[in-house]
Structures are given as C-alpha cells and as structure tokens.
Design a protein that fits this description.
Helix content is 8%, strand content 2%. A two-stranded antiparallel ribbon has the order 1-2. By secondary structure, the chain is mostly loops. The longest helix is centred in the C-terminal third of the chain and has 19 residues. The relative contact order is 0.09. It starts with a strand and ends with a helix.
Length: 239
C-alpha cells in the first residue's frame, strides 16, 4: 500500500519520510529503513516493525499498541508520550531514546537496551523488563507497579520518586542507583547494591550481538562525540 506517496512494505526505504499522523495500522514494515522518519502521531497499532531501523525517528505521540518492535533499532528516537501498551520490544536498542511520559503498560522489554534513555514519568505497569539494560537511565516518577525487573541492570539509574510497588527486582543490579522517595511496597528486593562498574552495560546490542551503533550523517556531530566518549569509557574500565 501507499501512504503520502510512500510505499509501505517490508524492507522499504523510508529514510526521512514524512508520515506524521499517518494511518499505518497493522502495516508490515519489518526491516524497513526509517532513519530520521517523522512518524509523530502516527497510528501504528499492531504494526510489524521487527528489525526496523528507527534511528533518530520521531514517534512522539504515536500509537504503537501491540506493535512488534523486536530487534528494532531506536537509537536516539523520540517516543515522548507514545502509546506502547502491550508492544513487543524484545532485544530492541533504545540507547538515549526519549520515552518521557510514554505508556508501556504490559510491554515486553526482555533484554532491551535502554542505556541513558529518558523514561521520566513513563508508565511501565506490569511490563516485562527481564534482563533489561537500564544503565544510567532516567526513571524518575516512572510507574513500575508490578513490573518484572528480574536480572535487570539499573546501574546508576535515577529512580527518584518512582513507583516500584510489587515489582520483582530479583537479581537486579541497583549499584549506584538513586532510589530517593521511591515506593518499594511489596517489591521483591534480592538485588545487587554495590556498584558493578557497569558490568553488562555493553552486553547484547553493543557486545555479544555485535550490534555496535551505526553512525549516520543525521546528527553526525553528536554521534562522533558519543563514540569518542564511549571509547574512553571502555578504556577506563579495562585499565
């Protein structure tokens, strides 16, 4: 099918596409190249975005209820106030993504990479974050009621005033995390509290899966700065 003159299909080249408020319900965009695309307010309910590249894409206010984003690359994507209820983001890459105010109720976030991501005020009620990487992420005022954070890496995460009522934190790494004002009523707290030097931070997308972030012309200056920082950070850990 075609939307706004763009061919919507698996593997489509939609770099910088203008699809704001587009009706993409149940669209098959598996493996599509959506780098820098504008999907703000788009209807992506039930869409197939497995292995799609959404680097630096604008998905602010988009409706992604039940969407499949397994293995999707959402580096630096804008998902502010997006609705990701029951969406599947298993093993997705969301480093530095902005999910402020996003609704991730019941979402599948197993092994997701959310290092340095913004989840301020996000709703993660009953979300599955098993083995998720949330190193240095901002989760202040986030609602994690009943969330499964088994084995999650929350090294130096900001959980100020977060609601973790009845959350399962078994085996989670909370080394250096800020839990000031957090609600831990009924939470399972068999956790690691000593800083782990970020162990596991670069597992998965940046490590064992060999999915080092690709550098694009879009926001190239920022990417170069971050790459230099990353190299110095790694050197600091190994010295």
């Amino acid at each position: 099918m075609e939307v706004n003159g763009y061919k919507i299909e698996s593997g489509a080249d939609l770099v910088l596409a203008k699809l704001e408020n587009a009706d993409l319900t149940n669209a098959n965009l598996a493996g599509a190249d959506l780098i820098g695309a504008n999907l703000a307010g788009a209807d992506l309910i039930g869409a197939n975005l497995t292995n799609a590249d959404l680097t630096n894409a604008n998905l602010a206010g988009a409706d992604l209820i039940g969407a499949n984003l397994t293995n999707a690359d959402l580096y630096y994507a804008n998902l502010t106030n997006a609705n990701l209820e029951n969406a599947d983001l298993t093993n997705a890459y969301l480093a530095e993504a902005n999910l402020t105010g996003a609704d991730l109720t019941g979402a599948y976030l197993n092994s997701v990479f959310l290092g340095y991501a913004f989840l301020n005020g996000a709703i993660l009620t009953e979300a599955n974050l098993t083995e998720a990487k949330l190193v240095c992420s901002a989760l202040d005022h986030a609602n994690l009621t009943g969330a499964n954070l088994t084995g999650a890496n929350l090294y130096y995460a900001n959980l100020t005033n977060a609601n973790l009522e009845n959350a399962d934190l078994t085996g989670a790494d909370l080394g250096g995390a800020n839990l000031t004002g957090a609600n831990l009523t009924g939470a399972k707290l068999d956790v690691i509290l000593e800083p782990s030097q970020g162990e596991g931070f670069f597992d998965g997308p940046l490590g064992s899966d060999d999915r080092r972030r690709r550098m694009y012309e879009i926001d190239q200056e920022f990417s170069d700065d971050f790459e230099n920082w990353y190299q110095k950070w790694i050197e600091g850990l190994t010295n």
